[in-house]
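Reply to dn_fold:

You asked what the input looked like. This is it:
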Amino acid sequence: MTEAASVASPARIDLAAFAKDIDALRAELQSQLGPADLAHFEKMVRWGRTATALGYATAWIAPNPISTALLALGSSARWTIVMHHVSHRGMDQVPGVPERWTSKRFARGGLRRRVLDWLDWVEPEAWNLEHNVLHHYRTGELADPDLVEHHMQMLRDADWPMPVKLAIVAFFSLTWRSTYYAPNTFQVLAATKRKGEARMSAEKVGEAEPIETRMLSAFDPRTEEGRAFLKSIAPYVAGRFVVGPLAFLPLGPGAVASVAANTVMAEALSNLHTFCLITPNHTGDDMFRFEERPVGRAELYARQVMGSADFTGGSDVADFLQGFLNYQIEHHLFPDLPPKKLQEAQPRVEAICKKHGVPYVREPIGQRVRQLVGVMVGSRSMRRATTGADAAKQIDAARAPQAGELSTIAAEE
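and this is what came back:
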């Protein structure tokens, strides 16, 4: 928690007043949307494309860390900055935004748009359901498909030497988009289509079988679902690891081999990069997880803050390198705002949290990764609460342990 957020806290948390200030800030930020937001977003797009272009322009020479890093950075940026914000309708309200940057067009409309806009392990439709709907509206609940502590329960409980546990974490950090995220999002979508449900599917899938069993079953070509999953990742595998290197065949087989080697190394590095950017966002012994659904907008706001963490940053370069995921609290409060507005909102959201005594966690990414690893291996555990109001009461009680009965002001929609 930042120093600014840890002092001068009020005796109790007023969720209704907190929500009122957040709503006022949202309205102000939306009223200020303009050409600067579009220009900033397109600058980030250019930076990502430049990294990819320079990576391929040098990848044919020899396997080397510079090409690897550039290819990895371009891949990470396309997901964390471009797809992430566009699919959340982050650019939809920006005046003058081209249709290609709107949620109705980007990566929608079949394989062609997927190839042109966001060719990755994850299917855009699966991402939109798993992340935009389930993760954002069930944050920190058992039905949150990105609840790391729950998914890592087997590893947390295992009576294995710590070096073995850390080796497993390292393996997933280098492969997680293919070994965890792609199959998880695909199976959540498949379960939704089977059951005809839009929001509860993750909960029922989680009850059906452990996640490690589901991950393995996704790669089983003997089953219809396994074949469907393999078909869903085939465009990325073919484009990234076959078509890309073969495009350099006119330069000779050595160039093809060099591009292939740099591509494989970039894949591992991009996995590590996005693992460090994405998975620590809601994980740590200072983060809450919740047992019940939020009641009302105010509680939804509160649990998005209490269950999320920011990374430090503030400059375009630092934020680009962190995929603008260093504004996770602001993004969960305002998912439909563009990256520049999240950057502008950060100090003001932190001030609102301080004013109302709502814990606001903002730390360097290295500290958050250490929190993540601790939760994964079982040396740290997340805080538990029934609801956001319950979490607020726990915070109130911790601040005033000698006081009598403390009451958190309930928030109504």
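Residues 14 and 409 are 5 Å apart (CA to CA).
Hope that clears it up.
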